Amino acid sequence: MRKVLFESLMRRPLTEAAPATDEEMLAELGGSVERAARRRLGRSLSIREVDAGSCNGCELEIHALNNAFYDLERFGLHFVASPRHADVLLVTGPVTRNMREALERTYHATPDPKWVVAVGDCAVGGGIFSGSYAVIGGVSGVVPVDLHIRGCPPDPIQLLKGLLALLEPT
Amino acid sequence: MPGLIETIKGQKVAEHRPWPRLVVNEDSWRFATSQLSAGQWTLLGLWGDAGAVHMAVLDAAVREIAVVTMPCPDGHFPSVGALHPPAIRLERALRDLYGLEPVGLPDMRPWLDLGFWDVQCPLGHSRDALQPRAPYAFLPVAGESLHQIPVGPVHAGIIEPGHFRFTANGETVVRLEQRLGYVHKGIEALMAGASVDTAARLAGRTSGDSTVAYALAFAHAVEAAMDVEIPPRAVYLRALMAELERLANHFGDIGAICNDASFSLMHAHCGILREKTLRTAQACFGHRLMMDVVVPGGVARDLAANCAGQIAATLDEIRRLFPQLVELYDNTASLQDRTASTGVLRGELARQFGAGGYVGRASGRAFDARKTIGYPPYHRLDFDVPVLETGDVNARVWVRIREVEQSLRLIDQILQHLPTGPIRTTLDPAGEVREGLGLAEAFRGEVLVWARLEDGRLARCHLRDPSWFQWPLLEAAIEGNIVADFPLCNKSFNCSYSGHDL
Fold first, then answer.
1. Which of helix, strand or coil describes residue B154?
2. Is the peptide bond before B132 cis (omega within 30 degrees of 0)?
3. Are A4 and B325 in contact (CB < 8 Å)?
4. Residue B243's closest CA among B91, B85, B457, B418?
5. Across B296-392, where does the E strand assignment appear?
């Protein structure tokens, strides 16, 4: 173990430079996020991820945000285990009928002020799964959404851009 | 030794490829069930159709597969699950989706229909759902000093939703009962009537972590049905993607299992290897998970220029870094203390359920669709299927480690023998009915796809995730372990929720 740790000390970090935030995403957020709420939270957000019906592709890329290359925590963003600790709900998937109640209850368990970020093409409008008897459609059909991050799945840089937009001063 | 097919009495369906499908009467259906319960054959899948049930069976001794179909015009059939427990959840799901009654099924509770759909039996004679529904009855528990811990569907980590009901005596789990179906998206209903292209995209989104394997199994089924051969270069490119997908997932799993034993150093380093693999995939195939690249007829895009060199460089790096991590895993006593002898899955159960992937192979079941059944190009490539006997978390880690090494060997050979030429054949939409069965070895086990095409469109498609035969075994493996070891055991199985729920 010492060898692995020692090598890590000698090596340059793998972490990528922070991406510029996405103008389009900032514009979408502009109306929904109030200055006061941002002041209260500062540049630190706790995120609760909710899979509301995803194929698990989005989860893989959200996981990747925590690896050494993207290192989400350096921006004050971190994932928490309970909606009660969260400022942001990161919701994936077309919302299935079987997950609707769980998503609603997770939303209500999250204290205000809070934001909902819908991740992936399915979360926007149901994507390829829309029209199914088992699917409601996009996340905004169940809970109010502040920001959409598109992609199938969005790669970690796209996710990072979207999340950093939440922290940008308006 | 008589082959599988000769022993089943039934009428062979001409348009079914590459393995036979036999339409049988009740006696032959019961005979097949008895062969399964006697351990002669392995259940590969069981699914519904309009007025009929199908099961796919494997005779591992002679490496033969057959689909057995029993028409059930009266809406019922003799339950396979009554004699062969691995079929129970499949029959519960079939009942929810088709409304066909498995007579004698020991567990008649719904499985995928959690009571939130507007329709009942959406794939059969659908009818409006009756409201309200009685609450789901978990299995009763009786005894002193027992308490229950309900977990999910929303879990603490970044994982898929499902409900786990633990009954514990102090720290010790005496029973785990799973309740799944939360991410049921109705994929099979969406596929009915869909074009081959749309259906391929749906297949690739059944379980995102196995998108290549699903697309491959689907392509195998469609190509078998249409009786087309694809260009050799496409065959090799598919295998290259399948092995890159296996590498990425195994790196992710090995790290995550160690992380669940609070050893985050392994997680951090395995995460780097996973990321490097995904970036290589992005550079070579234009998508980190390689979605929608494997298509019926071949592959949608060729390897980008200079990519063979880039893949070789990534492999070199893995070969340099991975052995250090293996050594770290092997030499860290505190980590071994958590993984060795934890979550033991007995070999008999793995064989009875036909558990594939590392779950089966860590418990002595040497099945790998690439080897046991074989499909191109693997019959031309040299690789081993690592098998261990102890069946604990540690064995499931070691099977993955050994499979990483085998995938590296395979990619070397694929790059070395990569043929030149076209990468896609056009599929002629045939007018008549065509049927095909396809298998592909995903990182967690074999994916089975059955497809019936009519006028070049999908009339019926069934996708069976390896997790169907692994989830129930997790319930068995956790028994007698402490609650705190559940995440570790669960991660070592890493079953798919989305692939199972469909």
1. coil
2. yes
3. yes
4. B418
5. 298-299
